[in-house]
Design goal:
The complex is a heterodimer of chains A (109) and B (115).
Chain A (H helix, E strand, L loop, with lengths): L2 E3 L3 E5 L4 E8 L6 E6 L6 E6 L3 E5 L2 E6 L4 E6 L8 E8 L5 E3 L3 E6 L1
Parallel strand pairs in A: 2-11
Antiparallel strand pairs in A: 1-3, 3-8, 4-5, 4-9, 6-7, 7-8, 9-10, 9-11
Chain B lengths: L3 E4 L2 E4 L5 E7 L5 E7 L5 E7 L6 E2 L6 E5 L5 E5 L8 E8 L10 E2 L3 E5 L1
Parallel strand pairs in B: 2-11
Antiparallel strand pairs in B: 1-3, 3-8, 4-5, 4-9, 5-6, 7-8, 9-10, 9-11
The chains are: A mainly beta (109), B mainly beta (115).
């Protein structure tokens, strides 16, 4: 079967760094994506890892280890506006996405 | 560019009623998707269309039908609504040939309640 696991909630202090982990299980894996969703809003794309290693986009970085079926999203210099839900999703052979249940990040002053 | 648009934004149906959710994108994307998101959950794929004229089932297709009317439009139909279909429905699109080919662009969602 297919599955994704990520923590349900994370709390971090403004200005700090937070890491959101994601482990997956699937027979066909083509890459790992991360999406951000604010309450009442639509998901928006943050990053994609097709190969092992780190991808950096501004304050956000994402990492993938295919051998460990593991990835993470790293958010630096946290801001209050980063409070949102973060979803990891793996890409299947049909170029479709299978989403995790999301991690709710709360940034506190 | 409006991106991905969805209508209606909100809808309340009675059990057994039918309705069609509309989705359109103006980015000339080949691939389009319909997802549902239940409270506190991730998105689950209902149907997708890899290109104009093709549609395929996703993870949770039962109770739904779709039509890829043209390259821009992809509609989702509930023939006989059930309370279990109460959810937020998102349409998305992507261009597999683009530089950012893995990015899906989402519409604002339709909040559907079935009583």
């Amino acid at each position: 079967g297919q599955s994704l696991e990520q923590p349900s909630e994370v709390t971090a202090v403004e200005g700090a760094i937070v890491q959101i982990n994601c482990t997956y299980q699937t027979s066909g894996f083509y890459g790992l994506s991360w999406y951000q969703q604010h309450d009442g809003g639509a998901p928006t794309f943050l990053s994609y890892n097709g190969l092992d290693g780190l991808e950096e986009t501004g304050r956000f970085s994402s990492f993938l280890s295919r051998s460990d079926s593991y990835g993470y999203l790293l958010l630096q210099e946290l801001q209050m506006k980063d409070s949102a839900s973060y979803f990891c999703a793996f890409e299947t052979g049909a170029n479709n996405l299978f989403f995790g249940t999301g991690t709710r990040l709360t940034v506190i002053p | 560019n409006a991106g991905v648009t969805q209508t209606p934004k909100f809808q309340v149906l009675k059990t057994g009623q039918s309705m069609t959710l509309q989705c359109a994108q103006d980015m000339n994307h080949n691939s389009m998707y319909w997802y549902r998101q239940d409270p506190g959950m991730g998105l689950r794929l209902i149907y997708y269309s890899a290109s104009e004229g093709t549609t395929d089932k996703g993870e949770v297709p039962n109770g739904y039908n779709v039509s890829r009317l043209n390259k821009r439009e992809f509609s989702l139909r509930l023939e006989s609504a059930a309370p279990s279909q109460t959810s937020v429905y998102f349409c998305a699109s992507r261009d597999p040939r683009a530089r950012r080919s893995h990015e899906q662009y989402f519409g604002p969602g339709t909040r559907l309640t079935v009583t």
